[in-house]
Amino acid sequence: xxxxxxxxxxxxxxxxxxxxxxxxxxxxxxxxxxxxxxxxxxxxxxxxxxxxxxxxxxxxxxxxxxxxxxxxxxxxxxxxxxxxxxxxxxxxxxxxxxxxxxxxxxxxxxxxxxxx
Length: 116
Ligand SMILES: [Zn+2]
What we know:
Elements: H1 3-30, H2 32-35, H3 47-80, H4 95-100, H5 108-115
Bound molecules: zinc ion (ZN).
Zinc ion binds near residues 86, 89, 91, 107 and 109.
């Protein structure tokens, strides 16, 4: 893998990081529980959909936060020269996989094993 490849990956990661941060913000704004945090007592009977929506949005936010964490980790490993090595088996991650999913921390075969 050459310098250009890493520069491209870094670019992809930085763009993705920004996008995910914006998505997290949007999810927070959509959350009825969050935006009602300062509101006084809510009307009876309206809580159930709010709780449902909140649960769904909280799960979405969790996924996005996890993704953001992986992106940040990948960016750090780019700086330290450890980028592109599988966290599980230590082998090089396939460049095609990195281009598709630059934040990935494990190689194709480890991810296959994991999802089984
Ligand atoms: Zn691996």
